[in-house]
Amino acid sequence: MAQETSSSSSESIQTLCYDVFVSFYGKDTRLSFTDHFFAALYRSGILTFRDDRELERGKAIWTELQKAIETSRIAVIVFSRNYAASSWCLDELEKIMECNRSFQQIVLPIYYNVDPSELRAQKGNLAEVFANHKERFGEEKVGGGGLL
Predict the structure, then answer these.
(1) What pTM value is reported for the model?
(2) Where along the sequence do coiled-coil regions lie (predicted)?
(3) Fewer beta carbons under 10 A from the terminal one: N or C of the chain?
């Protein structure tokens, strides 16, 4: 499904490889919601990048994930209880928002067993997770960059 599209705000041409990239925290949703979600997208003929558990962790997987995010028309973010506890998820979120700004990539949030107001306000069960990440990664990565 390789397709070229040009952005009005950029001279570059973006080649799309996927219809959808799904960002999710595997321990929260892999064996439940996201498995069903991926199956429904597949049945509908929607080409979706799937983060295979067999992909090696490290720079190689991050390079592959970045490319998949950049070459997807739509990014779906499945916010769950422990999504923000994962530096991988936060890195994906940061890249998705960069692509949204640069290429007008469509971003669709799904709130899985999470109250959207808690996520935006960084309160409730998520408060401790955000506090720990702000300490480790800084305000810009966790909440100061308009990611949430």
Answers:
(1) 0.76
(2) none
(3) N
> Judging by DSSP bridges, how do beta strands 106-111 and 72-79 pair with one another?
parallel
Q: How far apart are CA 113 and CA 12, in angstroms?
A: 39
- The set of residues, in sequence order, having a beta carbon less than 8 Å from that of 132 and lying 6+ positions away, is 85
Decide yes or no: CATH 3.40.50.1370 for domain 3-114: no
Strand partners, 5: 14
pLDDT average per 10 residues of sequence, the chain (148 residues)? 41 77 94 96 96 65 92 96 87 94 95 82 60 60 50
Find the radius of gyration of the CA atoms of the chain.
15
